[in-house]
Amino acid sequence: RAEDAADSAVRAQRRLDEMVHEGVALRVRMGLHTGNAEERDDDYFGPVVNLAARTMGAARRARNGELGPAA
Description:
Helix content is 48%, strand content 14%. With 71 residues, it is an alpha+beta fold. Strand 1 and strand 2 form a beta hairpin. The radius of gyration is 15 Å and the shape is globular.
C-alpha cells in the first residue's frame, strides 16, 4: 500500500502541475509516512496514521511561516 500511496501522490502532483486556473498554478505539498495501519469500517487507525497527521500539520505550519528554518 505504501507504493500505491507514493504513486498516487506523484500522479496527483503531476496532474496539479498541468492544471492552471486563470494563469495561477496550484502549489500543493504532500507528506507520506509508511507503515501498517489498521483498516476498519472504511477508515484507518493506528500510530502510523497519527504520525502522518503530525507530518501534515508540520507542513501546514511551515507553509504558514509558523515553524523556524530547522523544521
